[in-house]
Design the sequence.
């Protein structure tokens, strides 16, 4: 192959890199909170691509923070332990016995695997739970259904965030990987916290540039189930109007996005975790993928 032909075949790579340049400049030094979940947690190729993306963000000068849950792994472990999963109002009823399993799976299995994948690329990732250094404090969550308060066990809602440990790790050039469990100062119990909610609360507390939530859909659909047209960008107020119509699985994700942009985060994005390297496509390309939520003063395009 001649030198001329070689140059031509490499040209698209250069064009891709140049397209990323303004985004690299814009995001340099900024904190990005990424909620890891859905199919990306189970599929080996997607897990490996996710780890590459997070390490790429780190080397590109961003400060990624990963927050994860572990629904599928928790279900499997509870089945294995012979504990029945019961759901009320879309939330897992978590007995003290189930909470032991949840904690073990999140901190001892899902987090360890993720830290291991990231650390194949260097001494980067450090795992924390919300319990560590009081990173997340929770209180017992008591949902009201049909006017009645119901007990769903060790399910918590966040009452306070202490970002000290995470900021120290970021300053040290590390990638924090955080399991969404938290301790209560009221009763001393450990609670399972929805990971979408935890990621949004952390993004706001850290003053992150962006919150990214991986899902198993392409984004927020315009008129689901009648249309599969994805809304690429909308404001906080536009999202708030849509919330009552959303499917139950999307509610905590979109409520999280709303909370983030209403509390100082510049953009919140829901992206398709089934697409390899979706994080890089969203942050570093002009088109982006998924749905972006912006504060009201930025308007929608």
Sequence:
């Amino acid at each position: 192959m001649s030198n001329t032909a070689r140059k031509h075949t490499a040209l698209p790579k250069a064009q891709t890199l140049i397209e990323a340049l303004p985004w690299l400049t814009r995001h340099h030094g900024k904190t990005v909170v990424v909620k890891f979940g859905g199919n990306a947690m189970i599929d080996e190729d997607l897990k490996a691509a996710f780890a590459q993306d997070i390490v790429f963000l780190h080397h590109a000068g961003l400060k990624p923070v990963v927050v994860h849950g572990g629904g599928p792994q928790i279900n499997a472990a509870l089945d294995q332990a012979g504990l029945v999963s019961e759901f009320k109002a879309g939330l897992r009823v978590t007995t003290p016995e189930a909470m032991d399993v949840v904690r073990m799976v999140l901190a001892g299995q899902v987090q360890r695997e993720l830290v291991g994948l990231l650390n194949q690329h260097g001494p980067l990732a450090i795992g924390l739970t919300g319990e560590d250094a009081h990173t997340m404090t929770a209180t017992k969550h008591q949902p009201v259904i049909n006017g009645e308060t119901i007990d769903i066990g060790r399910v918590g809602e966040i009452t306070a965030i202490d970002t000290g440990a995470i900021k120290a790790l970021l300053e040290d050039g590390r990638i924090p990987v955080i399991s969404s469990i938290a301790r209560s100062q009221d009763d001393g119990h450990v609670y399972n916290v929805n990971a979408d909610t935890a990621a949004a609360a952390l993004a706001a507390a850290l003053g992150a540039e962006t919150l990214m939530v991986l899902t198993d859909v392409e984004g927020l659909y315009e008129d689901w189930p009648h249309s599969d047209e994805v809304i690429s960008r909308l404001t906080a107020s536009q999202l708030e109007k849509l919330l009552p119509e959303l499917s139950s699985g999307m509610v905590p994700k979109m409520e999280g996005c709303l909370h983030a942009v209403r509390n100082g985060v510049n953009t919140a994005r829901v992206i398709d975790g089934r697409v390899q390297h979706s994080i890089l496509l969203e942050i570093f390309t002009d088109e982006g993928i998924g749905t972006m939520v912006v504060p009201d003063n930025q308007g929608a395009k």
Remarks:
- The CA atoms of residues 145 and 208 lie 34 Å apart.
- The chain has a mean pLDDT of 90.
